[in-house]
Amino acid sequence: MQLDTPQQLSKTTIILHWVVGLSMIGLLAVGQVMEIFELYSLYPIHKALGFLIFFVILARVVWRFKNGWPTPVSQYQRHEQILSKLVHWVLIIGTILMPISGFLMSAVGGHGVDVFGWEVVARNPDPVNAGKVIAHNADIAGTAHTLHGIIGKIMMGAVALHIAGALKHHIADKDNTLRRMLGKAV
Ligand code: HEM
Ligand code: HEM
Question: How far is the centre of ligand 1, averaged over its atoms, from the C-alpha of 15 (Å)?
């Protein structure tokens, strides 16, 4: 399989970056909106897509460690290199922790996880009130819920910094960083 070179990123890197990146932006937005406005009809699709994208995320992490990180297109100031590396790490670790915490919150919390009709984890209904569920372990589910919220906020900040960085390279520095991630040879 073709690896990244400083002149051109491989198709694998580019496809995985945009599939995972755009899905994460969508899931962060849907998660935030459905929670604030209590749009319960969006919960099943958020959970199902979040579950499925986890497998693409795992493939991306394996690829990232096999291939190494892309080499910067030119020599930047040291603080800029450190900040961009830090943000890349936060983004890649966040992509792993968000689906895991979401899955645990729902599965251990008794709500179950259903992926477009495939019951991955069954609901655990309360025998007294079938509309409610009983948590298998309320502490673990509660911690996972808190983490899903906190890591989600950290991800939103990191994604904003990351996009600002990509635009700075493209507009202010006028370099090929964004062009290379769009598949152009530089
Ligand atoms: C894969 C990436 C995912 C992202 C980026 C994501 C993002 C978010 C965000 C930002 C929120 C709002 C949290 C808050 O404001 O406190 C949220 C809520 C939620 N997420 Fe996810 N999520 C993902 C995956 C999952 C998965 C796999 C599940 C379950 C299988 C899940 C279940 C939920 C549930 C049930 C809520 C609502 C919690 C509540 O009502 O308090 N998420 N998600
Ligand atoms: C519109 C949104 C986005 C734009 C314009 C964008 C742009 C870029 C660019 C230009 C690079 C190459 C940096 C370099 O050459 O050093 C990059 C790398 C990267 N981006 Fe994004 N990105 C976006 C969204 C995201 C999101 C949402 C995530 C998080 C899930 C993400 C995670 C990463 C990571 C981890 C890298 C390092 C290289 C890799 O692992 O493929 N990006 N991005």
Answer: 24
